[in-house]
Amino acid sequence: MRRRHAPGKSGNPHPLPLPYRPCDDRRSAGLDQLEKLENEISSILRTLNERAALCREIAGKQAVAGNSRAAESWERAAEEAEEREKLARQLVDKKWTHPEVVEA
To answer: How far apart are CA 85 and CA 102, in angstroms?
Structure first.
């Protein structure tokens, strides 16, 4: 396989295989990073939804048991999880800038 040095790096001890197109690497890395970020945000949304549901379930059980203070506390925790989910959802709903796609 023919090799050459990275652009502008004559004498570079780490030659790169041909063809080397740095724009392809940046585009791929950018898209991979964006996909990873979207997956992580989706995981956060699921976790917050699960927390809200769990808190509501515990609040209901505490109310049935006659422990109104604990029920109110768990209900507040559920509302907090729902509010945080709404904030995280705003991140998801905003459009992402994709410079890696526009680059030529």
So the answer is: 31
